[in-house]
Amino acid sequence: MDKLLSLTFIGLSRGAVYSAFALALVLIWRAARIVNFAQGAMAVATAYAAYSVTKATDSYWLGFVAALVGGLVLGALVERGVMRFVDHSAPLNNVIVALGVVLVITAIVGMIYGNQFLPFEGPFDQRPLMVGGTGLLSPYDLFVLGTVLLIVVLLALLFTRTPVGLRMRASAFAPEVSRLLGVNVAGMLTLGWALAAAVGAVGGMLVIPTELGLHPHAMDLVFVSAFTAAVVGGLDSPVGAVIGGIFVGLVLTYSTGYIASDITPVAILVLLLVVLLVRPGGLFSTTAARHV
Amino acid sequence: MSAILEINGVTAGYGAAPVLQDVSISVPTGTICAVLGANGAGKTTLLRTLSGLLKPTAGQVVFDGQDLREVKVEHLIRLGLAHVPEGRGVVTELTVDENLRLGGLWRKDRADARRALDEVYQLFEPLQRRRSSAGHQLSGGERQMLALGRALVARPKVLLLDEPSLGLAPRVTAQIMALLRQLRDDTGLTVLLVEQNVRSALSVADEGVVMSLGRVVVSTSAEQLRGDDELRHAYLGF
């Protein structure tokens, strides 16, 4: 029972990061109908920026801000500089170009920082707090959960309560009509990419300290998990992404806890396969409503 | 009467073959001008060219003294040109209120945008009752009201309306046409009305333009079109 409780808390914390990352995927999917396969690499690039800033200033938080700002800028650059020029008539075009972005980013950070693991510490203790002999959440887990909750709330407020959120949603659903109503649709698309990349950057900042360290491929497996989470929740649904992230986090933690510790990569792929076979539209997809 | 919208020798289309060929129409200020014609006559293409969604390969469109070739699509609404596209263009994922607010987001003056929204709610009582409903929950008539209302939030000088009667019951179509007449009389709104429903369009129109295969074949007063049997038989089929 103690083990179950302990694993559940770890799973929640891990799942929260997948939620954030899945949310970033959903943001771009809704805005541009593109699955951003470069998101993991983009998050890695911003984490390297954070690493440099933290090293130079000795402040984790300045590094965190650098990652956030770096995410906004990188997201906008990738959209304005690359994705905008892709012929969107075949979905595969976007995928291939995004994979090209992955190769470029990975190569560049590898050239600058090398291909070894760099130490990447979180701001809080990662040892779980003991309650009645059971290890529950660590201060760092609380930081992760709090940050992701904040992101979710801020995004929800942005999209439902602000004029720019209304513009972004309208541009995504009906670009031509939105233009006729005076909305700068191209600008909203850039903003969507920037926001998504910033959310992805935060996801990277949260997850990398819990792994082996910073590496050009540090986010590869996280990306696959988050992609699975987004598909579980339905690529169209932000709420689905959050729930899907928690679900994937729990499934992976239980399977590593109860079956074998090195089963994670296999478990992710099995889960993805099952979801794609059983419910390719996702559990919370609103696709049906979109075609009315 | 001066013309608020001048279409001068416009040729436009998709790919190599032009859909519109040398189209010239002059729409006097404060009138309803009906553009009639069969399927494929180029009516929708005409409206898309007017609002800049399609660039003309020749000719020019002058709106309120300004050459629209120099204006971005996103800026037309600020100048006072509103386009309600075919199929009504309601964003079905958004609520009625969000759709309407979208029509006034370009305004810098928030209080004025609020007032414009309230005016539209007064004009369309049913929308007021359904303001939190999603677009996809509305009936065809309500959607048309919403699309029209959303354009009116901009308080446009000219309204481009693409087939507002499409899929609507005759009673609802009559209501829409009556509303257009009321707007013209009360606010001096100019309407370019593209319709296949010739009878209802001519019931409110001041001017009538008949298009066939991308060209203007008749341009005259609506009264003359209503009264001239020969003209009606030849071009409008009734």
Automatic annotation (TrEMBL), chain A:
TM stretches of this protein: 6-27, 34-53, 59-78, 90-113, 142-160, 181-208, 214-232, 239-260, 266-289
Any one biological process term the GO annotation gives: amino acid transport
Transport found in the keyword field: yes
Keyword Hydrolase in annotation: no
Annotated membrane topology: Multi-pass membrane protein
Record's subcellular location: Cell membrane
InterPro entries for the chain: ABC_transp_permease (IPR001851), BCAA_transport_permease (IPR052157)
CDD domains named among the record's database cross-references: TM_PBP1_LivH_like
Chief place of localization: membrane
Superkingdom as given in the UniProt entry: Bacteria
Keywords from the named record: Amino-acid transport, Cell membrane, Membrane, Transmembrane, Transmembrane helix, Transport
GO cellular component, one term: plasma membrane
GO function term, MF aspect, one: transmembrane transporter activity
Family affiliation: Belongs to the binding-protein-dependent transport system permease family. LivHM subfamily.
Protein name: Branched-chain amino acid ABC transporter permease
TrEMBL record, chain B:
Classification via PANTHER family: HIGH-AFFINITY BRANCHED-CHAIN AMINO ACID TRANSPORT ATP-BINDING PROTEIN LIVF (PTHR43820:SF4)
PROSITE patterns found in the cross-reference section: ABC_TRANSPORTER_1 (PS00211), ABC_TRANSPORTER_2 (PS50893)
Segment forming the signal sequence: none
Sequence similarity: Belongs to the ABC transporter superfamily.
GO molecular function, one term: ATP hydrolysis activity
Residue stretches making up the ABC transporter domain: 5-238
One Pfam entry name: ABC_tran
SUPFAM superfamilies, A to Z: P-loop containing nucleoside triphosphate hydrolases (SSF52540)
The entry's keywords: Amino-acid transport, ATP-binding, Nucleotide-binding, Transport
CDD domains referenced in this protein's UniProt entry, alphabetically: ABC_TM1139_LivF_branched
Biological processes annotated in GO: L-amino acid transport
Name under which the protein is recorded: ABC transporter ATP-binding protein
UniProt keyword Transport present: yes
